[in-house]
Structure formats: C-alpha cells, structure tokens
C-alpha cells in the first residue's frame, strides 16, 4: 500500500488534480485498510491530515464501507469526533490498471499509538493523561449511543487519533449505523461490514452473529465492550490479539477496575453506559481533568471562582505533565485572556507557562496575546502587564513596540491612578530602547516632562532616574535641550530631597554628554547651591558631583595650557562613588501618601507597595555599578529604523510647532529652596536697602507670573540651541537702582513682604540729617473735642423744662 501511495504522489508530492491539498509522508499505523498521511493546504499551507483508501473497483467492499464512513463523518459533529474538511474519490492509474481511491481531508491529527510513544509519560502523569483521553472518548461514544442512537461498532486504540493540542478524537466510522431495536433493518451497515471488525474486538453476541440479541440490547452495549478493549490496550501497551487477554487486569488502575469489569460484562444489558462512566468513575477525578474542565466552561464561572482558580494555577501547572500544559492548557489560557473571560491573575500563569517555551514558540504562541491585551480597558489587566513587562519585553520587536504597544501604554501616563502612572513610567526602561527617534522626541518626552511636575514625589524622582537611563537613546540635539534643563531647573530644585539627589546622580551618570561650557556655566553653579542642602544625603552627593565635574575643569585647563584644543568631554573621568544607586529605581511604589482609594481598585491585580522611600539595588544596562565612566567613550547619536520611520534627524522636526516641544526649555523653577537662616542674614546685609512702592512691586510680580505661565504653556521646547541659564529673581529691583556688581543677588532670599502700612511716613518737613527722624512718632491727626460733646466727668445734662410746651408741627 505504501508503494502504491508513493507511486500516486511520486515526484511532485501532490495527489489528484481536484484535491486542493498536498499529500505528505504517511504515518506508520492507521485503522483498517486506510492510509493516514500528513498534508498541507495548497491555499495557505496550513497542516491537515489526509486519509486514503484504495480498491481495485468501485464496487469493492472496502470502498463501499469507506463511502459510509465519509458520509457519517461529514454529518456527525462533536468536539470529540474528528473534524471533516474535504473528500473526493478519483481513479488513479497504476501502470496498466486503474485504482479507485477515496480521499478524506480532516484537521491535523496523529495516531494515538504513536503519540503515546512520543510523549513517553509514566507514573501519575501517564494515568492523568489517559484519564483525560478516556474522558473525551467516553463523551464521544455517549453522544453517538444516547443522543444520536448510533452504534460505532469498532471502538479500539486504532480508531482514536490525537490533535496538536493533545485532545483525543474518535474516527473510523466505516461500520457506523443506526440502532433501532424495533426495526430489523436498522443494523444494515453493521450487518454488511461487520467483517471489517477484528474478531478480538467483537463481543460474544457479534461473534455468534446473534442479531436478535443485539437488537434487544441497549444501544451502548457493543461500544461499551469497545471501550473496555481500548482501556486494556492503553494500560497494557500492547495491541489486543485475542478476547481472552481482556481477563488480565494487572495493568488496570484500581480506581478504574470496577468500571472496566462492568464495561466487559458477558450480559449486554448489564454493561455500563458510557455516560455513567463519565459521571461516576473515581478515576476521572484528578487534577488534570478538573483543570481542563474548568477552563472549558470558564464562561459559566463567577468572578470569585475565576480569581481563586487562576491564583492557584501557576503552582498547579508545575505538577501537571509539562507537554500537556504547553499544548493544551496554554492555548486555552491565551484564548480566555484574549476574549476577556479570564481575570488578571491568569496573566501570571500565562507568563509562567510561556517561560517553559523556546524563544521561537513564545513569540508564536504567547506574544500575540500579550500585544492584544495592551489594548484592554481593564485596569487590572494593564497593571498586570506592566508589572511583568520585564519578563517578555525583550521578546517584543521594535516595530511592534513602536506601532502597537506604546500607543496603548502611553495612556497610563495620564491615568488618574498614581500607581498606574508609576508602572507606566518604569515600563519605559524596557520599551524605550525599541522606540523610534520620532516617537521618543515627539511623544515620550512630552509625557516625561509632565511627570517631572507630578503631584507624587516618587513619580518625579523616578522620572529623573529614567531620563538618566535612557539618555543614550536620545539623539544629540535632543540631549542638548532636555537633559540639563530637566536635571538642574527641575530636579535640583525639587522640594523632595530624594528627587534632588536623583538629579545630582543623573547629571553624574550622563557626564559624557556635556561640554566644558555647559559644565562651568549651567551645571556646577546649580550643584554648588546644594552643598548647604538641609538633607545630608543630598549634600554628600553634591560634593561628590562637584569633585567629578571639577576634575573635568582641571583636565580642560591642562589641555589649554599644553595647547591641546580638542573638545573636553566626560570620557576619562572617575565614576562617582554613589552612582550605582542611579542605575535602579530610587523610589518605591506610590503609597507614600497612603492613597487607599486608588489602591483599593487594584488590590485584585497588584500588591500594595510599601510606604517608605527605598533605593532599589538592581542595576540597569546603561551604566553598571562597578563601571568606570572614564572607560566609556562618548556614545554617538543613535539612529533608528524601527517602525519604518528610518533615521529621524533633529533638523527634520518642525522647530516652531508646539506639538514637537516636550517641555524642558525656558522653564521657571518649581520652587526656590530656602537657604539656612545664617545665609539669609548675610545676603540681606550685602543687599542695599531699597524702599519700593507696594503697587509697583505687585504689578511686577503679576507680570513675572504671567510670563512664566506663558512660557510653560506656549514655549515647551523653544529653539534647538541651548538657552543661556536664567534665574528668576523673586524680589526684583527697578532698573535705575539695579546693582550690576551684586553677583549673588539672583539667589538671595527675597525680602519679606508686608501688606501693613509703614509706621512712619516721610513728609516734606522731615530732616534727612536727623538720625532719629526715622523712628520719631508721627504728629497727631485728630482734634480735641469740647468736653460738652463727650461723656466725660464735666458734662452735665440739660435741666428738663416744666409745663406745657408748644410743638412746632411745620
């Protein structure tokens, strides 16, 4: 038969012209006279199985039974019955003779006997898998016998095939026929083709051809006997050769033995109904069967049952057969998450199962589901994705991240939940390297600019750390206009001390991106102020950073002395001792303020974070804790071809469009840090005393505030050139009295304002040379009233007049 099939499909690997499938290599075993081959669709290349049956003439008995099987397989549909796709019958020339061949195309399956050898299971895992398979075949037989009133007639190991998801399915319907005890012709197909069934699989009534007894028996009598034969072949590992072998029960599990004996009862009416075998058998009550059954009816479960199940699933999956978990449970779990029937904890189980796959299989079976989940509106799903993004982020391609993932993740930057905003921020550490330059400059930096002024101090701090870590992925023009403004104007002047410390560390970590002019004019002046910071850790990091940047200045000076005019950069500098802490997140999750209302909605998907500010020791790939900055050359501007955008040069981006400005250019300080009291006194002593009119001062302050607000709203980025450093003077002087020689006036503490009136106003008659005039009491502004007008001791009431008085009524 194999030689014949090879002759039919020789050379091209295709069958008849009207068969839209390619016939591949045959399997070693198949039911009856059929040949089971692998195949593919000519249209899309999808895998199929092709069964072929040949005969010398069209009236051949095998072909007649085969036509009955094709008709039955086409009309009977059940999840545990082989799915029919296509069939055809053709005449194939074999030299001088013609062969009639029937082709049946079905879903891709493999003979059960070969799949068992391939899986090579043993012990409890083998018993659990056999229990699941028998459960499926029993449901298929029960459906035929009880619901359709059909008799399969030849249930055995050869009539069962296995799908790629390790599901067992029943086929070989050549002898399938209707059962009607009152109709003598109801078993016509079985009467005609019962010779196709091996004698070892026939019950005693079929061996004796006692058809009258068969009609009086229940419809499941013959197939229950077949189920007993299947159980024996499964656990013995041998093909049944004669009926007497069924008496050997040493291979049968003890929990299944009573049911096995009832299936093989010598009296047909006493044989066990397959439906009762499914419901009552203790053998089917195991972890694998219960887990798969729960997944298949997941839509009928309530949220509490789902949540409990998925929280136990990661540990349960480790106890189940690994191949069954990957080929059966994993697809079920992916579909449940994709179509919304699974809860957020299912994502943890999905990623754990996915970690057992190869990188190629993970990209095919798991990643498409994860990418679709990023578009979910379920906040708990989004939280779970962001919490585990480090487990699958590296497997995402740059094009998928730039076009499909980031647009959905970016919604979390503006989410009302601070916890979700922080998770979105931290996810950029994994996603930013895969973004195109256009996406980074046009979208990501806008969000980071807003997060640097977030109400949560932890988010502000981590934004600074993120900028320091992704600096190498920014092009040179973007680094020039972003880094210094973000680290000095905002981070170093933040009211939260860890944010100031993060700003110092970010400047030190990105030291190779600044030239000497920026170091001397924009960086050092801002760091020096922090040497008197109230926080000791900030002061320590400030001194370390000053030493580091002064080392640059000394090197630059030595080059000038020796005549070397090459550009001085941060390469060749010793790394700051505390630099390693920049490389991880310096802040914990956002329960710094204990917002229970926000965290309450996320308790089912994410653990509440600690309320303390904790430094994270995990290093990042950009700068290692033990690396020396001096060994790192100044990186070139990265280019990106991700997402089909190609290299985006800064000159290609619009200069004056506000949509392309991320928000760090021309920024007013968030809030000036207050120096210690001693510094305030010294600064006040050096500043000349100026008397200002309250009205003019108020007007100037209003104009300054309006100008600052306009700069933030309208000019987010400004020109590409680096702007000169600006300092807003809180206590402005009139132009005529401005002291140009006062170098410290820009950072001096503003003079206290008072809305009360001065105690003494100068008048025209005041003598300027009188040193006491300033504190003299003002002249009285009221006139003395006569005593008669007041209520003093000398005032006497007028004496009342006696007698009638004339009343003037005019």
Automatic annotation (TrEMBL):
Compositional bias (Low complexity) spans? 771-786
Look up the domain of life of the source: Eukaryota
Ranges annotated as biased composition (Basic and acidic residues): 654-664
Record domain Protein kinase: where: 1-284
Q: Which Gene3D superfamilies match?
A: Leucine-rich Repeat Variant, Phosphorylase Kinase, domain 1, Transferase(Phosphotransferase) domain 1
User: Where, in residue numbers, are the HEAT repeats?
Assistant: 366-404
Q: Which UniProt keywords apply?
A: Kinase, Transferase
InterPro entries named in the record? ARM-like (IPR011989), ARM-type_fold (IPR016024), CIK-Related_Protein (IPR051177), HEAT_type_2 (IPR021133), Kinase-like_dom_sf (IPR011009), Prot_kinase_dom (IPR000719)
Keyword Kinase assigned to the entry: answer is yes
State the residue spans of region: Disordered.
Answer: 602-664, 682-810
Give GO terms: molecular function aspect only. ATP binding; protein kinase activity
Q: In what ranges is there compositional bias, type Polar residues? A: 602-642
Q: What is this protein called?
A: Inactive serine/threonine-protein kinase scy1 isoform X4
